[in-house]
Amino acid sequence: MLDIAPNRPDLPAEIARRRTFAIISHPDAGKTTLTEKFLLYGGAIQMAGQVRAKGEARRTRSDFMQMEKDRGISVSASAMSFDFASKDRSFRFNLVDTPGHSDFSEDTYRTLTAVDAAVMVIDGAKGVESQTRKLFEVCRLRDLPILTFCNKMDREARDTFEIIDEIQENLAIDVTPASWPIGMGRDFLGCYDMLNDRLELMDRADRNVVAESIRIDGLDDPTLDKHVPAHLLEQLREEVEMARELLPALDPQSVLEGHMTPIWFGSAINSFGVKELMEGIGIYGPEPQPQPASPRQVSPEESKVCGFVFKVQANMDPKHRDRVAFVRLASGHFNRGMKLTHVRTKKPMTISAPVLFLASDRELAEEAWAGDIIGIPNHGQLRIGDTLTEGEALKATGIPSFAPELLQGVRAGDPMKAKHLEKALMQFAEEGAAKVFKPMIGSGFIVGVVGALQFEVLGSRIELEYGLPVRFDSSQFTSARWVAGDKQAVEKFINANKQHISYDHDGDVVYLTRLQWDIDRVERDYPDVTLSATKEMMV
Ligand code: G4P
């Protein structure tokens, strides 16, 4: 049965039931396992193991993917849609995958612009790890609601209060327990559901089912004794009492604003706690949120379709040089075959073969609603940050492009192939896989990335996809800044600093340097010129 989310009664039911989110975690915390269990509960797969199996099949496709496999990193982000029924409500979940490795952070950051919430998975024994912290900070920039899942409680974990304290202190966010673990490691029995006063017991025998919840009337209910050994029961009562006294109670508004995170404890591999987390996503989700855009923001309930590209993936199939633009629908009801305006070029585009990413396969998207992610195959017209509308000149904002932290020169192994190299580099620049700068003086290109491994990935992709061996050389520059400001002042600045000037793939002016001192000097000497470490992916 459909239900309208209580805090947005104006949303059409199909939109109100959508929950679009990503999982953020440190490698090994259990993201893949949890994803698999989501799909299992969502009925999208029949048994555990398929996500991984699909990953393996995909990885056998190329050497590049081989590298992905060898290093145990995930390079290709994707989106998955599935339904989840909870009591009298039926949700459509859109899970957007964030590539796991820190070296791919830029891509990951942009992925987070396409979601309305994030699920933070932490390992109960390890607490908040570096990658999680980094991703959390990005979520915070957008005040994204965050729901926390503390995984691997079937192993020795830290003390529950300690885990909660660490999150509160490390991430400066209020934490409220949605569930409370009973025992841990070998003694882990299950959780006390703090929100519904229920007991959830873990069934160790079958990892793919969850034992029926037991209805309890508070912690003094005598039936508790039947299920929990005395020493654990005493501990549970004490801890829950302390938690209720010391920790803030769940405040849905504060969760929505990103100031508070509810935490569920569980064990993804044992399918335990997953269903409660999914119910939590449904209730505190939230539903599709307005999209910042210029000159006005776009609300999901608007009847006209508006969507923006947050990711472009080229060469998903090495045999075809097609690209898939991942589009987050910000408003309206999309139907296959619709003619939309590509705002940047003002050209109409008929979207005849949009794809929806279901767990096991891609399929043609006959229709989609605000909140959904669709893939649009194209030949390069669609770039990151592009907006599609039913005619209005709207531009999605807030999709960042990060200043690269590492710069290197790149040359084709065969100097005759320089033109080919330019084409390949431009494609990767459009895809957002690297920044490409063409220096104003001299030949060749400078490539900028956020993590060192990206050079290697880029090198193998250019070789694999374009048959072009390339060489990277160290560059005299280490920082890039986009130049903006008064036209005359910018021209004067360019003329006086030609050795440092280059152009990015959009033709925008970029100042390259090695020294912070240079940047400070420019800011002092050219008050009408601004140097910016990031550039919104806008035209
Ligand atoms: P990731 O995507 O975040 O990198 O983590 P992934 O799900 O691949 O899980 C990392 C490892 O942790 C896997 O073990 C997985 O089985 C295990 N794991 C996930 N959830 C739980 C849990 O609730 N309890 C316990 N004890 N282990 C869990 P692996 O040995 O690396 O892989 P595999 O051989 O099990 O596939």
Automatic annotation (TrEMBL):
It comes from Pseudoponticoccus marisrubri. Belongs to the TRAFAC class translation factor GTPase superfamily. Classic translation factor GTPase family. PrfC subfamily. The keyword Amino-acid biosynthesis does not apply. Keywords: Cytoplasm, GTP-binding, Nucleotide-binding, Protein biosynthesis. GTP binds at residues 25-32, 97-101, 151-154. This is Peptide chain release factor 3. Increases the formation of ribosomal termination complexes and stimulates activities of RF-1 and RF-2. It binds guanine nucleotides and has strong preference for UGA stop codons. It may interact directly with the ribosome. The stimulation of RF-1 and RF-2 is significantly reduced by GTP and GDP, but not by GMP. It comes from the Bacteria.
